[in-house]
Each structure stands twice: as C-alpha cells, then as structure tokens.
Amino acid sequence: MSLLDSLNADMIKAMKARDKTTLSVVRMIKAALQNEQIKVGHDLTAQEELGVVDRELKQRKESLEDFEKAHRDDLVTGVKAEIAIVEKYLPAQMSDAEVKTTVQDTIAEVGATGKSDFGKVMKALMPKVKGKADGAKVNAMVKELLG
C-alpha cells in the first residue's frame, strides 16, 4: 500500500471516528505531498515522499520546542499528539547503536581521517539514514567520531 493510499484510508477512518486531530494532520501531510509533487513536476518516489513526511515531523518538533520555551502547555499537548500521528508514516527509527555503527562504517568506507572530511562523510551517510534517524543526532555522532 502506497503512502497516499494509507493516508486516504486513515483520513476516512478519522472522519468516521470524528478524530479532528488525526484528520487535520493527515490532510496536512497529504497537502504537503501534493504540493511537492506539483513542485517537482512528476509523481513522487518513495524516497521523496519520505522526505516530505520527515520535513513535516521536523516542523512539528521545532514548534514543540518553541511552545515549551514559551511555557504554552496548552499547545504542547496538541503538537505532541500531531508528532505521534506523523511518526506513524515514517519507517522505524534507528537506535543510537545502529546510527553509530552506520556512521563508523561510512567513515571507513570514505576513508575519512579528521574533521576536514565531515562533508564527505555526511554526503555518503545521509541517503543511508534518511527518514530513519534524526539528522541532528547523526550530525553530532559524525562530529564526535571524527573529532
């Protein structure tokens, strides 16, 4: 089942269950996918769809941080619920150990020796972990292992 089919099925379920939060989030993801498809001018690949959903998750996480800093507990709960719904459409996240192993393998693969090779490592690494690991966590891990 494609992501769009899954979104349509979940949208119908949410409508029947009168679940406004899920319905709203699913509609936003669907709109983001359609906008991206118009932008690129072709049907999205699975990787491109994953990138759009990942971007939606990142936006919500940034909002969550902002709301927590502003002590807006009323908004924090809603955004946490949205994050849980968006995460449902992403593949399972890699554990810290899996990320570390992948980073170490990639460093060995590209022959990186120091911080000057950071860009080379990230270029080779990101396609492997896209959607499966948080970019900030991967970035920090690469810096740690190269430093």
UniProtKB/TrEMBL annotation:
GO molecular function: carbon-nitrogen ligase activity, with glutamine as amido-N-donor
Entries under Gene3D superfamilies matching the protein: 1.10.10.410, Uncharacterised protein YqeY/AIM41 PF09424, N-terminal domain
Pfam families given in the database record: YqeY (PF09424)
Highest taxon listed in the record's lineage: Bacteria
Protein name according to UniProt: YqeY
Gene: yqeY
